Amino acid sequence: MLKELFKKIQTNNNNYTNEELEAIKIFLKDEIIIINNNNYELNSKYKVATVKIGKNLVILEDLVSELKNIKIEFDDLNGAYNGDLVLAKRVFNPRSKTKAKIIKVLDGKKAEILVYIKDKAFFTVKENIKIENKNALKYEDGDVLIIDNKSFELIKNVGNIKDSKIDEFISLYLYEELYRLEKHLDIVANMDDTKQRVDLRELPFCTIDPNSAKDHDDAIYFDKKENILYVAIADVSYFVKEGSELDLLAFKKSTSIYLPTKVLPMLPPILSEEMCSLKEGVDRYSYVFKMHLDLENFSVKKAELFEAIINSHKNFSYGRIDRVIDGHLDQYSKLEKEIFDYLIPLYEITKKFRKNRLIKGYDFRTSENRLKLKNGKLESIEVETSTASHQLVEECMLLANIEASKKVNKVGIYRIHEEPPFKAISKLVDDVNILGVNVKLQSDVHDTITHIQEKAKISMMGAEIDELIIQAQTQAKYSSKNLGHFGLGFSSYSHFTSPIRRYSDLVLHRILKTKQTPNNIDDICEHISLNERKVDQLVWDFEDRVYARWAASHIEEEIKVKVVDTQKAKAVCYEKIVGMKVVLENYKGQKLFSKMRVKIKSADIITKVIVATII
Length: 615
Fold this sequence. Notes:
GO terms for molecular function: exonuclease activity; RNA binding; RNA nuclease activity. With 615 residues, this protein is α+β, with helices and mostly antiparallel strands.
Protein backbone atom coordinates (compact mmCIF):
# COMPACT_ATOMS: atom_id res chain seq x y z
CA MET A 1 0.00 0.00 0.00
CA LEU A 2 2.73 2.51 0.97
CA LYS A 3 4.63 1.96 -2.27
CA GLU A 4 1.53 2.80 -4.33
CA LEU A 5 0.79 5.78 -2.06
CA PHE A 6 4.18 7.38 -2.62
CA LYS A 7 4.01 6.64 -6.35
CA LYS A 8 0.72 8.56 -6.46
CA ILE A 9 2.23 11.47 -4.52
CA GLN A 10 5.23 11.70 -6.85
CA THR A 11 3.07 11.55 -10.01
CA ASN A 12 0.39 13.97 -8.67
CA ASN A 13 -2.26 11.28 -8.79
CA ASN A 14 -4.81 12.53 -6.23
CA ASN A 15 -7.05 9.48 -6.34
CA TYR A 16 -6.32 8.33 -2.75
CA THR A 17 -8.13 5.56 -0.89
CA ASN A 18 -9.35 6.11 2.68
CA GLU A 19 -6.54 3.87 3.95
CA GLU A 20 -3.96 5.96 2.07
CA LEU A 21 -5.43 9.21 3.46
CA GLU A 22 -5.06 7.86 7.00
CA ALA A 23 -1.40 7.04 6.30
CA ILE A 24 -0.86 10.52 4.85
CA LYS A 25 -1.97 12.08 8.16
CA ILE A 26 0.87 10.31 9.98
CA PHE A 27 3.46 11.40 7.43
CA LEU A 28 2.10 15.00 7.52
CA LYS A 29 2.58 15.06 11.28
CA ASP A 30 6.25 14.11 10.88
CA GLU A 31 6.63 16.58 7.96
CA ILE A 32 7.69 13.77 5.62
CA ILE A 33 4.75 14.70 3.41
CA ILE A 34 3.89 18.39 2.99
CA ILE A 35 1.01 20.27 1.33
CA ASN A 36 1.84 22.57 -1.58
CA ASN A 37 -0.90 24.28 -3.65
CA ASN A 38 -3.45 21.85 -2.18
CA ASN A 39 -1.39 18.88 -3.38
CA TYR A 40 0.47 16.37 -1.26
CA GLU A 41 4.22 16.33 -1.89
CA LEU A 42 7.17 14.44 -0.51
CA ASN A 43 9.36 16.77 1.55
CA SER A 44 12.50 17.39 -0.54
CA LYS A 45 14.60 16.45 2.51
CA TYR A 46 13.43 12.86 2.11
CA LYS A 47 13.37 10.07 -0.43
CA VAL A 48 11.13 7.00 -0.52
CA ALA A 49 12.72 4.19 -2.51
CA THR A 50 13.30 0.45 -2.84
CA VAL A 51 16.62 -1.02 -1.72
CA LYS A 52 18.65 -2.94 -4.26
CA ILE A 53 21.86 -4.46 -2.92
CA GLY A 54 24.56 -5.34 -5.44
CA LYS A 55 27.96 -6.91 -4.96
CA ASN A 56 29.81 -3.66 -4.25
CA LEU A 57 27.09 -1.03 -3.87
CA VAL A 58 23.60 -0.25 -2.65
CA ILE A 59 21.09 1.58 -4.84
CA LEU A 60 17.97 3.36 -3.66
CA GLU A 61 15.70 2.72 -6.63
CA ASP A 62 13.31 5.60 -7.26
CA LEU A 63 9.65 4.60 -7.45
CA VAL A 64 9.04 6.58 -10.64
CA SER A 65 12.26 7.21 -12.58
CA GLU A 66 15.52 5.28 -12.61
CA LEU A 67 17.25 8.58 -13.44
CA LYS A 68 16.64 9.57 -9.82
CA ASN A 69 18.27 6.46 -8.33
CA ILE A 70 20.83 7.16 -5.59
CA LYS A 71 23.88 5.13 -4.58
CA ILE A 72 24.50 4.83 -0.85
CA GLU A 73 27.10 3.20 1.38
CA PHE A 74 26.56 -0.16 3.06
CA ASP A 75 26.99 1.60 6.41
CA ASP A 76 23.90 3.70 5.64
CA LEU A 77 21.51 0.73 5.28
CA ASN A 78 20.40 1.00 8.93
CA GLY A 79 19.05 -2.57 9.02
CA ALA A 80 17.28 -2.39 5.66
CA TYR A 81 17.70 -5.23 3.21
CA ASN A 82 17.16 -6.12 -0.42
CA GLY A 83 13.65 -5.26 -1.66
CA ASP A 84 12.66 -3.19 1.39
CA LEU A 85 10.69 0.02 0.89
CA VAL A 86 12.57 2.65 2.88
CA LEU A 87 12.51 6.27 3.94
CA ALA A 88 15.88 7.93 3.41
CA LYS A 89 17.02 11.38 4.46
CA ARG A 90 19.12 13.39 2.07
CA VAL A 91 22.54 14.33 3.43
CA PHE A 92 24.37 17.55 2.57
CA ASN A 93 27.26 16.79 0.24
CA PRO A 94 29.62 19.61 -0.79
CA ARG A 95 30.63 17.63 -3.90
CA SER A 96 27.07 18.18 -5.20
CA LYS A 97 26.31 14.47 -5.76
CA THR A 98 23.12 13.49 -3.95
CA LYS A 99 23.73 11.40 -0.84
CA ALA A 100 21.25 9.82 1.51
CA LYS A 101 20.99 7.69 4.63
CA ILE A 102 18.15 5.29 5.40
CA ILE A 103 16.29 6.32 8.54
CA LYS A 104 13.37 3.90 8.50
CA VAL A 105 12.11 0.72 6.84
CA LEU A 106 8.55 1.49 5.69
CA ASP A 107 7.70 -1.92 4.31
CA GLY A 108 10.12 -4.75 4.89
CA LYS A 109 9.60 -7.97 3.03
CA LYS A 110 9.84 -10.99 5.28
CA ALA A 111 12.67 -12.99 3.84
CA GLU A 112 15.75 -14.95 4.76
CA ILE A 113 19.43 -14.11 4.45
CA LEU A 114 22.63 -16.12 4.51
CA VAL A 115 24.99 -14.90 7.23
CA TYR A 116 28.12 -15.97 9.04
CA ILE A 117 29.38 -15.27 12.55
CA LYS A 118 32.41 -13.09 13.11
CA ASP A 119 33.34 -11.34 16.37
CA LYS A 120 29.94 -12.31 17.87
CA ALA A 121 28.00 -10.48 15.14
CA PHE A 122 26.13 -11.46 11.99
CA PHE A 123 27.69 -10.60 8.64
CA THR A 124 25.86 -11.18 5.36
CA VAL A 125 27.75 -13.67 3.19
CA LYS A 126 26.92 -11.92 -0.09
CA GLU A 127 27.78 -8.30 0.75
CA ASN A 128 29.73 -8.71 4.04
CA ILE A 129 27.42 -6.24 5.83
CA LYS A 130 27.59 -6.30 9.63
CA ILE A 131 24.29 -6.83 11.48
CA GLU A 132 24.34 -6.19 15.22
CA ASN A 133 21.93 -8.51 17.04
CA LYS A 134 22.09 -10.39 20.33
CA ASN A 135 21.03 -13.63 18.59
CA ALA A 136 24.53 -13.80 17.12
CA LEU A 137 25.94 -14.52 20.58
CA LYS A 138 24.49 -18.05 20.45
CA TYR A 139 26.86 -19.19 17.72
CA GLU A 140 30.54 -19.90 17.12
CA ASP A 141 32.82 -17.87 14.88
CA GLY A 142 32.62 -19.16 11.31
CA ASP A 143 29.12 -20.62 11.63
CA VAL A 144 27.12 -20.12 8.43
CA LEU A 145 23.39 -19.68 8.98
CA ILE A 146 20.17 -18.83 7.20
CA ILE A 147 18.22 -16.40 9.39
CA ASP A 148 14.97 -14.44 9.19
CA ASN A 149 15.88 -10.93 8.01
CA LYS A 150 13.48 -9.24 10.46
CA SER A 151 13.53 -11.32 13.64
CA PHE A 152 17.07 -12.68 13.08
CA GLU A 153 15.86 -16.07 14.31
CA LEU A 154 17.56 -19.19 12.96
CA ILE A 155 15.99 -20.90 9.94
CA LYS A 156 18.84 -23.29 9.07
CA ASN A 157 22.32 -23.97 10.40
CA VAL A 158 24.35 -24.65 7.25
CA GLY A 159 27.60 -25.56 9.01
CA ASN A 160 30.93 -23.95 9.77
CA ILE A 161 33.13 -22.32 7.15
CA LYS A 162 35.98 -24.62 8.24
CA ASP A 163 34.11 -27.44 6.47
CA SER A 164 34.69 -27.37 2.71
CA LYS A 165 31.47 -29.32 2.12
CA ILE A 166 29.40 -26.15 2.53
CA ASP A 167 31.08 -24.28 -0.37
CA GLU A 168 28.68 -25.74 -2.94
CA PHE A 169 25.64 -24.87 -0.79
CA ILE A 170 26.80 -21.25 -0.36
CA SER A 171 27.23 -20.64 -4.10
CA LEU A 172 23.94 -22.30 -5.03
CA TYR A 173 22.10 -20.37 -2.29
CA LEU A 174 23.57 -16.99 -3.23
CA TYR A 175 22.54 -17.43 -6.86
CA GLU A 176 19.14 -18.98 -6.07
CA GLU A 177 19.94 -22.34 -7.64
CA LEU A 178 19.49 -24.66 -4.63
CA TYR A 179 16.43 -26.21 -6.25
CA ARG A 180 18.80 -28.05 -8.61
CA LEU A 181 19.69 -30.38 -5.72
CA GLU A 182 16.09 -31.55 -5.43
CA LYS A 183 15.00 -34.97 -6.67
CA HIS A 184 14.83 -35.17 -10.47
CA LEU A 185 11.44 -35.41 -12.14
CA ASP A 186 10.26 -38.96 -12.73
CA ILE A 187 9.85 -39.29 -16.47
CA VAL A 188 9.34 -42.09 -18.94
CA ALA A 189 11.54 -41.79 -22.03
CA ASN A 190 11.05 -44.26 -24.85
CA MET A 191 12.20 -44.33 -28.46
CA ASP A 192 8.70 -44.82 -29.82
CA ASP A 193 8.53 -42.40 -32.74
CA THR A 194 5.88 -43.54 -35.22
CA LYS A 195 7.30 -41.34 -37.98
CA GLN A 196 9.77 -42.78 -40.43
CA ARG A 197 13.24 -41.53 -39.49
CA VAL A 198 16.25 -41.58 -41.80
CA ASP A 199 18.25 -44.65 -40.79
CA LEU A 200 21.97 -43.79 -40.55
CA ARG A 201 22.97 -46.55 -38.15
CA GLU A 202 25.36 -48.12 -40.64
CA LEU A 203 27.45 -44.94 -40.90
CA PRO A 204 30.43 -45.03 -38.48
CA PHE A 205 29.63 -41.89 -36.51
CA CYS A 206 31.90 -41.01 -33.59
CA THR A 207 31.84 -38.58 -30.67
CA ILE A 208 34.86 -36.63 -29.42
CA ASP A 209 34.58 -35.26 -25.88
CA PRO A 210 36.49 -34.75 -22.63
CA ASN A 211 37.40 -37.98 -20.83
CA SER A 212 34.83 -37.38 -18.09
CA ALA A 213 31.89 -36.54 -20.39
CA LYS A 214 28.58 -38.27 -19.71
CA ASP A 215 26.39 -36.14 -21.98
CA HIS A 216 27.34 -36.67 -25.62
CA ASP A 217 25.40 -34.01 -27.57
CA ASP A 218 27.05 -34.39 -30.94
CA ALA A 219 28.50 -37.01 -33.26
CA ILE A 220 30.20 -36.59 -36.63
CA TYR A 221 30.79 -38.65 -39.76
CA PHE A 222 32.60 -37.58 -42.95
CA ASP A 223 32.07 -39.15 -46.34
CA LYS A 224 35.46 -38.34 -47.84
CA LYS A 225 34.50 -39.56 -51.34
CA GLU A 226 31.55 -37.20 -51.65
CA ASN A 227 32.90 -34.52 -49.26
CA ILE A 228 29.73 -34.72 -47.17
CA LEU A 229 29.89 -33.88 -43.47
CA TYR A 230 27.21 -35.29 -41.20
CA VAL A 231 26.69 -33.58 -37.83
CA ALA A 232 24.24 -35.53 -35.68
CA ILE A 233 22.80 -33.78 -32.60
CA ALA A 234 20.82 -35.46 -29.83
CA ASP A 235 17.11 -35.07 -30.63
CA VAL A 236 16.16 -33.67 -27.23
CA SER A 237 12.99 -31.96 -28.50
CA TYR A 238 11.44 -35.38 -29.18
CA PHE A 239 11.58 -36.23 -25.45
CA VAL A 240 11.02 -32.74 -23.97
CA LYS A 241 7.59 -31.58 -25.11
CA GLU A 242 6.94 -27.85 -25.18
CA GLY A 243 4.94 -26.64 -22.18
CA SER A 244 5.41 -29.85 -20.17
CA GLU A 245 6.56 -29.80 -16.53
CA LEU A 246 9.95 -31.05 -17.73
CA ASP A 247 10.15 -28.24 -20.30
CA LEU A 248 9.21 -25.52 -17.79
CA LEU A 249 11.92 -26.72 -15.41
CA ALA A 250 14.49 -26.86 -18.24
CA PHE A 251 13.54 -23.28 -19.18
CA LYS A 252 13.97 -22.17 -15.56
CA LYS A 253 17.45 -23.72 -15.44
CA SER A 254 18.35 -22.66 -19.02
CA THR A 255 21.72 -24.37 -18.85
CA SER A 256 23.64 -27.11 -17.05
CA ILE A 257 26.00 -26.05 -14.26
CA TYR A 258 29.50 -27.51 -14.46
CA LEU A 259 31.21 -27.36 -11.06
CA PRO A 260 34.63 -28.91 -10.42
CA THR A 261 32.93 -31.48 -8.22
CA LYS A 262 29.85 -32.37 -10.27
CA VAL A 263 27.46 -31.49 -13.08
CA LEU A 264 24.02 -30.16 -12.20
CA PRO A 265 22.27 -30.95 -15.49
CA MET A 266 19.52 -28.96 -17.19
CA LEU A 267 17.72 -32.24 -17.88
CA PRO A 268 17.32 -35.30 -15.62
CA PRO A 269 20.11 -37.92 -15.96
CA ILE A 270 17.69 -40.37 -17.59
CA LEU A 271 17.82 -37.97 -20.55
CA SER A 272 21.14 -36.12 -20.23
CA GLU A 273 23.21 -39.25 -19.61
CA GLU A 274 21.02 -41.91 -21.20
CA MET A 275 18.23 -41.49 -23.78
CA CYS A 276 19.56 -38.21 -25.24
CA SER A 277 23.25 -39.01 -24.94
CA LEU A 278 24.84 -40.37 -28.12
CA LYS A 279 26.50 -43.25 -26.30
CA GLU A 280 28.76 -45.74 -27.99
CA GLY A 281 27.08 -48.70 -29.65
CA VAL A 282 23.53 -47.62 -28.81
CA ASP A 283 20.77 -46.54 -31.20
CA ARG A 284 19.76 -42.93 -30.57
CA TYR A 285 17.36 -40.40 -32.07
CA SER A 286 19.17 -37.44 -33.57
CA TYR A 287 18.61 -34.30 -35.59
CA VAL A 288 21.12 -34.36 -38.45
CA PHE A 289 22.72 -31.83 -40.76
CA LYS A 290 24.02 -33.39 -43.98
CA MET A 291 26.35 -30.75 -45.43
CA HIS A 292 27.89 -30.93 -48.90
CA LEU A 293 31.22 -29.11 -48.59
CA ASP A 294 32.71 -26.81 -51.23
CA LEU A 295 36.42 -27.35 -50.68
CA GLU A 296 37.46 -24.57 -53.07
CA ASN A 297 35.37 -21.80 -51.55
CA PHE A 298 35.45 -23.14 -47.98
CA SER A 299 31.67 -23.15 -47.70
CA VAL A 300 28.62 -25.39 -47.58
CA LYS A 301 27.09 -25.91 -51.04
CA LYS A 302 23.93 -27.56 -49.79
CA ALA A 303 22.63 -28.46 -46.33
CA GLU A 304 19.87 -30.95 -45.57
CA LEU A 305 18.30 -31.18 -42.10
CA PHE A 306 16.29 -34.20 -40.99
CA GLU A 307 15.32 -36.42 -38.07
CA ALA A 308 17.29 -39.65 -38.00
CA ILE A 309 18.37 -42.62 -35.97
CA ILE A 310 22.12 -43.17 -35.58
CA ASN A 311 24.49 -45.40 -33.70
CA SER A 312 27.72 -43.82 -32.48
CA HIS A 313 30.25 -46.50 -33.34
CA LYS A 314 32.92 -45.04 -31.06
CA ASN A 315 33.28 -42.47 -28.26
CA PHE A 316 36.75 -40.89 -28.31
CA SER A 317 38.50 -38.51 -25.94
CA TYR A 318 40.12 -35.30 -27.21
CA GLY A 319 43.51 -36.67 -26.15
CA ARG A 320 43.15 -39.83 -28.22
CA ILE A 321 42.22 -37.90 -31.36
CA ASP A 322 45.08 -35.43 -30.78
CA ARG A 323 47.47 -38.36 -30.86
CA VAL A 324 45.85 -39.68 -34.06
CA ILE A 325 46.18 -36.27 -35.76
CA ASP A 326 49.85 -36.20 -34.69
CA GLY A 327 50.36 -39.58 -36.36
CA HIS A 328 50.49 -41.65 -33.16
CA LEU A 329 47.72 -44.14 -33.81
CA ASP A 330 48.61 -46.38 -30.82
CA GLN A 331 46.86 -49.74 -31.00
CA TYR A 332 43.60 -49.64 -32.92
CA SER A 333 40.80 -51.89 -34.08
CA LYS A 334 39.52 -52.23 -37.64
CA LEU A 335 36.57 -49.98 -36.75
CA GLU A 336 38.80 -47.32 -35.20
CA LYS A 337 41.03 -47.34 -38.31
CA GLU A 338 37.94 -46.82 -40.49
CA ILE A 339 37.02 -43.76 -38.40
CA PHE A 340 40.59 -42.39 -38.30
CA ASP A 341 40.70 -42.68 -42.09
CA TYR A 342 37.99 -40.03 -42.39
CA LEU A 343 38.92 -37.94 -39.31
CA ILE A 344 42.45 -37.19 -40.52
CA PRO A 345 41.41 -35.75 -43.94
CA LEU A 346 38.45 -34.00 -42.24
CA TYR A 347 40.90 -32.30 -39.88
CA GLU A 348 42.94 -31.02 -42.84
CA ILE A 349 39.76 -29.66 -44.45
CA THR A 350 38.55 -27.96 -41.26
CA LYS A 351 42.00 -26.39 -40.86
CA LYS A 352 41.51 -24.63 -44.19
CA PHE A 353 37.94 -23.64 -43.31
CA ARG A 354 39.24 -22.24 -40.02
CA LYS A 355 41.96 -20.23 -41.74
CA ASN A 356 39.38 -18.76 -44.11
CA ARG A 357 37.00 -18.04 -41.20
CA LEU A 358 39.66 -16.11 -39.32
CA ILE A 359 39.94 -13.57 -42.16
CA LYS A 360 36.79 -12.01 -40.67
CA GLY A 361 36.70 -13.60 -37.23
CA TYR A 362 39.30 -13.78 -34.45
CA ASP A 363 41.51 -16.43 -32.96
CA PHE A 364 41.95 -15.79 -29.23
CA ARG A 365 44.39 -17.82 -27.17
CA THR A 366 41.99 -19.11 -24.57
CA SER A 367 42.59 -21.67 -21.87
CA GLU A 368 40.37 -23.11 -19.18
CA ASN A 369 41.42 -23.95 -15.66
CA ARG A 370 40.00 -27.29 -14.50
CA LEU A 371 40.11 -27.45 -10.71
CA LYS A 372 40.67 -30.94 -9.31
CA LEU A 373 39.28 -31.37 -5.80
CA LYS A 374 39.69 -34.08 -3.20
CA ASN A 375 37.32 -34.08 -0.22
CA GLY A 376 36.23 -30.58 -1.23
CA LYS A 377 39.77 -29.18 -1.19
CA LEU A 378 41.93 -28.11 -4.10
CA GLU A 379 44.39 -30.80 -5.11
CA SER A 380 45.60 -29.66 -8.53
CA ILE A 381 44.72 -27.52 -11.55
CA GLU A 382 44.69 -28.74 -15.12
CA VAL A 383 45.01 -26.02 -17.75
CA GLU A 384 43.01 -27.06 -20.80
CA THR A 385 43.95 -25.36 -24.06
CA SER A 386 42.41 -25.62 -27.51
CA THR A 387 44.14 -28.48 -29.34
CA ALA A 388 43.80 -29.89 -32.87
CA SER A 389 40.95 -32.23 -31.83
CA HIS A 390 39.07 -29.35 -30.16
CA GLN A 391 39.42 -27.27 -33.31
CA LEU A 392 38.26 -30.16 -35.52
CA VAL A 393 35.03 -30.54 -33.51
CA GLU A 394 34.59 -26.77 -33.15
CA GLU A 395 34.70 -26.16 -36.92
CA CYS A 396 32.17 -28.93 -37.57
CA MET A 397 29.81 -27.49 -34.93
CA LEU A 398 30.24 -23.95 -36.26
CA LEU A 399 29.19 -25.10 -39.72
CA ALA A 400 26.06 -26.74 -38.30
CA ASN A 401 25.24 -23.67 -36.20
CA ILE A 402 25.57 -21.35 -39.21
CA GLU A 403 23.40 -23.56 -41.41
CA ALA A 404 20.78 -23.79 -38.64
CA SER A 405 20.64 -19.99 -38.35
CA LYS A 406 20.07 -19.70 -42.12
CA LYS A 407 16.98 -21.92 -41.89
CA VAL A 408 15.32 -19.77 -39.22
CA ASN A 409 12.66 -17.19 -40.07
CA LYS A 410 13.50 -13.50 -39.72
CA VAL A 411 12.38 -13.76 -36.09
CA GLY A 412 13.94 -16.74 -34.33
CA ILE A 413 16.64 -17.39 -31.76
CA TYR A 414 20.11 -16.16 -32.66
CA ARG A 415 23.40 -16.03 -30.80
CA ILE A 416 24.53 -12.45 -31.33
CA HIS A 417 27.73 -10.60 -30.51
CA GLU A 418 27.72 -6.91 -31.30
CA GLU A 419 30.74 -4.89 -32.36
CA PRO A 420 32.52 -3.26 -29.39
CA PRO A 421 31.95 0.51 -29.03
CA PHE A 422 34.61 2.98 -30.17
CA LYS A 423 35.33 3.99 -26.55
CA ALA A 424 36.29 0.40 -25.65
CA ILE A 425 38.53 0.01 -28.71
CA SER A 426 40.19 3.38 -28.06
CA LYS A 427 40.95 2.31 -24.47
CA LEU A 428 42.27 -1.03 -25.77
CA VAL A 429 44.74 0.80 -28.04
CA ASP A 430 45.88 2.96 -25.09
CA ASP A 431 46.33 -0.09 -22.83
CA VAL A 432 48.35 -1.97 -25.44
CA ASN A 433 50.60 1.07 -25.98
CA ILE A 434 51.21 1.32 -22.22
CA LEU A 435 52.53 -2.26 -22.41
CA GLY A 436 55.16 -1.05 -24.86
CA VAL A 437 53.54 -2.46 -28.01
CA ASN A 438 53.15 0.38 -30.51
CA VAL A 439 49.67 0.19 -32.09
CA LYS A 440 47.26 2.68 -33.69
CA LEU A 441 43.55 2.92 -34.39
CA GLN A 442 42.80 1.61 -37.89
CA SER A 443 39.95 2.35 -40.30
CA ASP A 444 37.50 0.06 -38.48
CA VAL A 445 37.22 -2.16 -35.39
CA HIS A 446 38.11 -5.39 -37.20
CA ASP A 447 41.27 -3.95 -38.74
CA THR A 448 42.28 -2.42 -35.39
CA ILE A 449 41.98 -5.75 -33.56
CA THR A 450 43.80 -7.63 -36.34
CA HIS A 451 46.55 -4.96 -36.32
CA ILE A 452 46.93 -5.31 -32.53
CA GLN A 453 47.14 -9.11 -32.74
CA GLU A 454 49.80 -8.94 -35.48
CA LYS A 455 51.90 -6.55 -33.38
CA ALA A 456 51.36 -8.73 -30.31
CA LYS A 457 52.80 -11.79 -32.06
CA ILE A 458 56.26 -10.23 -32.27
CA SER A 459 56.08 -8.76 -28.76
CA MET A 460 55.97 -12.07 -26.84
CA MET A 461 52.80 -10.77 -25.16
CA GLY A 462 50.21 -12.40 -27.40
CA ALA A 463 48.30 -14.15 -24.61
CA GLU A 464 48.17 -11.05 -22.37
CA ILE A 465 47.04 -8.78 -25.21
CA ASP A 466 44.39 -11.31 -26.19
CA GLU A 467 43.08 -10.96 -22.62
CA LEU A 468 42.75 -7.19 -23.14
CA ILE A 469 41.01 -7.69 -26.49
CA ILE A 470 38.49 -10.08 -24.92
CA GLN A 471 37.83 -7.57 -22.09
CA ALA A 472 37.06 -4.90 -24.71
CA GLN A 473 34.36 -7.04 -26.33
CA THR A 474 30.65 -6.79 -25.69
CA GLN A 475 28.98 -9.85 -24.16
CA ALA A 476 27.41 -12.40 -26.48
CA LYS A 477 23.71 -13.05 -25.84
CA TYR A 478 20.55 -14.48 -27.36
CA SER A 479 18.22 -12.39 -29.49
CA SER A 480 15.10 -12.91 -31.59
CA LYS A 481 16.66 -10.66 -34.24
CA ASN A 482 19.71 -11.49 -36.31
CA LEU A 483 22.41 -8.92 -35.49
CA GLY A 484 25.36 -11.10 -36.52
CA HIS A 485 28.28 -12.43 -34.50
CA PHE A 486 31.20 -9.99 -34.53
CA GLY A 487 33.72 -12.20 -32.71
CA LEU A 488 33.23 -15.17 -35.01
CA GLY A 489 32.84 -12.99 -38.09
CA PHE A 490 29.46 -14.48 -39.05
CA SER A 491 26.51 -12.52 -40.45
CA SER A 492 24.15 -15.14 -39.05
CA TYR A 493 24.68 -17.55 -36.16
CA SER A 494 22.59 -19.69 -33.79
CA HIS A 495 23.21 -22.35 -31.16
CA PHE A 496 22.07 -25.73 -32.46
CA THR A 497 24.58 -28.32 -31.26
CA SER A 498 24.07 -28.67 -27.47
CA PRO A 499 20.38 -29.16 -26.62
CA ILE A 500 21.20 -31.45 -23.67
CA ARG A 501 22.83 -28.59 -21.77
CA ARG A 502 21.45 -25.38 -23.39
CA TYR A 503 17.78 -24.44 -23.59
CA SER A 504 18.48 -22.12 -26.54
CA ASP A 505 19.38 -25.08 -28.74
CA LEU A 506 16.23 -26.94 -27.70
CA VAL A 507 14.10 -23.93 -28.71
CA LEU A 508 15.92 -23.71 -32.05
CA HIS A 509 15.26 -27.41 -32.78
CA ARG A 510 11.53 -26.83 -32.19
CA ILE A 511 11.49 -23.78 -34.45
CA LEU A 512 13.23 -25.69 -37.25
CA LYS A 513 10.85 -28.65 -36.93
CA THR A 514 7.58 -26.71 -36.69
CA LYS A 515 8.54 -23.62 -38.73
CA GLN A 516 6.92 -21.61 -35.94
CA THR A 517 8.49 -19.13 -33.53
CA PRO A 518 7.20 -19.00 -29.92
CA ASN A 519 5.11 -15.88 -29.20
CA ASN A 520 7.26 -15.15 -26.14
CA ILE A 521 10.60 -15.54 -27.95
CA ASP A 522 11.92 -12.18 -26.67
CA ASP A 523 11.21 -13.22 -23.07
CA ILE A 524 12.92 -16.57 -23.70
CA CYS A 525 16.02 -14.84 -25.13
CA GLU A 526 16.25 -12.40 -22.23
CA HIS A 527 15.75 -15.09 -19.58
CA ILE A 528 18.35 -17.52 -20.91
CA SER A 529 20.88 -14.72 -21.53
CA LEU A 530 20.54 -13.53 -17.91
CA ASN A 531 20.67 -17.08 -16.56
CA GLU A 532 23.78 -17.86 -18.59
CA ARG A 533 25.59 -14.95 -16.94
CA LYS A 534 24.24 -15.87 -13.50
CA VAL A 535 25.50 -19.45 -13.81
CA ASP A 536 28.95 -18.19 -14.87
CA GLN A 537 29.05 -16.00 -11.75
CA LEU A 538 27.95 -18.91 -9.57
CA VAL A 539 30.79 -21.11 -10.85
CA TRP A 540 33.32 -18.29 -10.36
CA ASP A 541 32.01 -17.74 -6.82
CA PHE A 542 32.50 -21.42 -6.02
CA GLU A 543 35.97 -21.59 -7.57
CA ASP A 544 37.16 -18.38 -5.86
CA ARG A 545 36.08 -19.82 -2.51
CA VAL A 546 38.01 -23.02 -3.28
CA TYR A 547 41.10 -20.90 -4.05
CA ALA A 548 40.64 -18.92 -0.81
CA ARG A 549 40.35 -22.16 1.16
CA TRP A 550 43.65 -23.35 -0.36
CA ALA A 551 45.33 -20.00 0.41
CA ALA A 552 44.08 -20.07 4.03
CA SER A 553 46.05 -23.28 4.59
CA HIS A 554 49.15 -21.95 2.79
CA ILE A 555 49.84 -18.68 4.60
CA GLU A 556 53.41 -17.41 4.06
CA GLU A 557 53.80 -19.60 0.96
CA GLU A 558 55.45 -17.98 -2.07
CA ILE A 559 53.68 -17.95 -5.44
CA LYS A 560 54.22 -16.30 -8.83
CA VAL A 561 51.64 -13.76 -10.00
CA LYS A 562 51.09 -11.16 -12.69
CA VAL A 563 49.24 -7.85 -12.26
CA VAL A 564 45.80 -7.88 -13.93
CA ASP A 565 44.16 -4.78 -12.40
CA THR A 566 46.30 -1.73 -11.71
CA GLN A 567 43.48 0.27 -10.09
CA LYS A 568 42.50 -2.38 -7.55
CA ALA A 569 46.02 -3.78 -7.11
CA LYS A 570 44.94 -7.27 -8.17
CA ALA A 571 47.14 -10.03 -9.53
CA VAL A 572 46.55 -13.58 -10.68
CA CYS A 573 48.70 -16.63 -10.09
CA TYR A 574 50.16 -18.03 -13.33
CA GLU A 575 52.09 -20.99 -11.96
CA LYS A 576 51.11 -23.90 -9.71
CA ILE A 577 47.78 -22.51 -8.39
CA VAL A 578 46.84 -21.10 -11.80
CA GLY A 579 43.94 -18.63 -11.80
CA MET A 580 43.99 -17.72 -8.11
CA LYS A 581 43.45 -13.96 -7.68
CA VAL A 582 45.17 -11.97 -4.93
CA VAL A 583 45.15 -8.37 -3.69
CA LEU A 584 48.66 -6.88 -3.37
CA GLU A 585 48.96 -5.06 -0.05
CA ASN A 586 52.21 -3.26 -0.98
CA TYR A 587 51.43 -2.53 -4.63
CA LYS A 588 53.38 0.48 -5.91
CA GLY A 589 52.01 1.04 -9.39
CA GLN A 590 53.76 -1.79 -11.20
CA LYS A 591 52.77 -2.06 -14.88
CA LEU A 592 49.90 -4.24 -16.07
CA PHE A 593 50.96 -7.90 -16.48
CA SER A 594 54.17 -7.32 -14.49
CA LYS A 595 55.32 -10.64 -13.07
CA MET A 596 56.55 -10.98 -9.50
CA ARG A 597 56.93 -13.28 -6.53
CA VAL A 598 54.56 -12.72 -3.64
CA LYS A 599 53.89 -14.25 -0.25
CA ILE A 600 50.34 -15.09 0.90
CA LYS A 601 49.51 -13.06 4.01
CA SER A 602 45.82 -13.78 4.64
CA ALA A 603 42.77 -15.43 3.12
CA ASP A 604 39.09 -14.99 3.97
CA ILE A 605 37.08 -17.99 2.77
CA ILE A 606 33.75 -16.17 3.09
CA THR A 607 34.64 -13.00 1.17
CA LYS A 608 37.15 -14.90 -1.02
CA VAL A 609 39.70 -12.11 -0.55
CA ILE A 610 43.30 -13.32 -0.61
CA VAL A 611 45.94 -10.77 0.39
CA ALA A 612 49.57 -11.14 -0.67
CA THR A 613 52.69 -9.05 -0.26
CA ILE A 614 55.30 -8.48 -2.96
CA ILE A 615 58.64 -9.97 -1.92
